[in-house]
Design brief:
This is DUF952 domain-containing protein. The protein is of the alpha+beta class. The chain is built from four helices and seven strands. The protein has one domain: Protein of unknown function DUF952 (ADP-ribosylation fold). A hairpin with a 4-residue loop joins strand 4 and strand 5.
């Protein structure tokens, strides 16, 4: 499937709870990611609707912000090169980034964002994002 144009600057991994601090080289996979065989990622435009669909009842979430160019180069969670491949694949309501064969961790996560839900997720993403690391 074709990647969006222009390519996003960042991709986001949504977490229902705070990741370990400090961030390890490799975060454990969610049950969904393990079962599907890849890490689910969203662009900034996709994140609010993904939150509405899968995290509607949550009052806060955590986002791992990852530079797209870092994942596209195959930089793994431990910072090593040549691991992982981003594939853009159709999923329900759009084309989403999926990371195959790689991990997320301190070597490729740009920062951690805490988002408290106030109003809609779209409003919360716009006005209520706190950088943690």
């Amino acid at each position: 499937m074709a990647a969006p144009y222009p390519l996003p600057t960042y991709l986001f991994k949504i977490l229902p709870s705070a990741p370990p601090s400090p961030l390890p080289e490799r975060l454990p996979l969610s049950d969904l990611d393990r079962n599907d065989g890849y890490i689910h990622l969203s662009t900034s435009e996709q994140t609010p609707s993904t939150l509405d669909k899968f995290f509607a009842d949550a009052t806060e979430i955590w986002l791992l912000r990852i530079k797209y160019e870092v994942l596209a180069k195959g930089i793994d969670g431990d910072g090593s090169e040549g691991k992982g491949e981003v594939k853009w694949e159709a999923a329900g309501r759009g084309v989403f980034a999926h990371l195959y064969g790689g991990d997320l961790g301190k070597g490729n996560v740009d920062c951690i964002l805490r988002v408290e839900k106030k109003g809609t997720w779209a409003e919360s993403m716009e006005f209520n994002v706190g950088v943690v690391e």
